[in-house]
Specification:
The protein is mostly beta strands. It has one helix at residues 68-77; strands spanning 12-29, 32-46, 52-60, 98-105, 113-118. It has one domain (6-118).
């Protein structure tokens, strides 16, 4: 298997909306069973059939301060989840929320892509108005 050089790996950004959050159950991991959660996004990119494509991201169901799921939700919402609200945070409120997805092909596997979730999509660049007349 040939590795793709990191310099040739290009990330792309697409707009999306969260359509589902699924509990995948427990999976056996190195240090015991781990609960997983899958977020599904409908993107504005089209596949070969002309349909809007679905993008998935799977997280360990962990909301510790350093957990990747919590960091992604922070970037997505634009504000942190306070420690006292973590236990009561309802992920289902994110369904229907727009976001920006960063899709990066992995150098090891040409068929696999990494997905990162960011804040709401931008409509275009905004320019600051010049104060010089």
């Amino acid at each position: 298997m040939a590795l793709i050089p990191k310099s040739s790996v290009k990330a792309r950004f697409i707009n999306g909306v969260c359509t589902a959050i699924e509990d995948l159950g427990y999976f056996e991991a190195r240090y015991g069973a781990v609960k997983r959660v899958k977020y599904t996004f409908l993107s504005d990119a089209f596949d070969e059939d002309g349909e809007r494509s679905l993008v998935h991201r799977v997280f360990n169901d962990d909301m510790r301060r350093t957990a990747s799921q919590r960091k992604a939700i922070h970037r997505w919402r634009g504000k942190a989840i306070p420690n006292d609200e973590v236990r009561n945070f309802n992920r289902k409120t994110l369904i229907g929320t727009r976001c920006r997805l960063k899709i990066t092909p992995t150098p090891q596997h040409a068929w696999r892509e990494e997905v990162e979730i960011y804040g709401p999509p931008t409509k275009g660049r905004t320019r600051k108005k010049s104060t010089n007349n």
